[in-house]
Amino acid sequence: MKNKRLVLALAAALTLVFCLCSCKNKKDEVVGKWMCDMYGSAQIIEFTSDGKFIDYSTVSENKYKIKDGKIETYVEGEEDSKVAVSYSVDGDKLYFGGAEYERVYVK
Predict the structure, then answer these.
(1) pLDDT tens for residues 19-30?
(2) Which domain holds residue 29?
(3) Quick one: 10 exposed, middle or buried, by C-beta within 10 A (0-12, 13-18, 19+)?
(4) What CATH number should be reported for the domain holding residue 22?
(5) Does the first or last residue of the chain, that is N or C, have fewer Cβ atoms within 10 Å of its Cβ?
(6) Residue 65: strand pairing partners
(7) Can you give the pTM of this predicted structure?
(8) What confidence tens digit (pLDDT) does each residue in 43-98 have?
(9) Do the bridges between strand 99-105 and strand 70-74 make them parallel or antiparallel, or are there none, so unpaired?
(10) Distance between CA atoms of 37 and 102, rounded to whole angstroms?
């Protein structure tokens, strides 16, 4: 009986560790600077490890979090400013907001 409880406790702990690791990796995969050519000019965005989203074309800095397979950007303290955009990462390519960005810098 003790062995069964130990195995169940170990399995629960491992499941928790895997869940936490997978959450961390989703955010880590977007951290860095990304660039795309949009409307004839370079557009550069950056996601920092401390949750900042910087858009260099508009010289704006906001916050971001990854939730339900989307990147949610928002102005801190303004609840109605949230915008959720689907994204995917494939190597050094970020597909975000209908654009294809290329990684230019990793922190």
Answers:
(1) 444 444 567 999
(2) 2-105
(3) exposed
(4) 2.40.128.360
(5) N
(6) 72
(7) 0.71
(8) 999 999 999 999 999 999 999 999 999 999 999 888 789 999 999 999 999 999 89
(9) unpaired
(10) 10
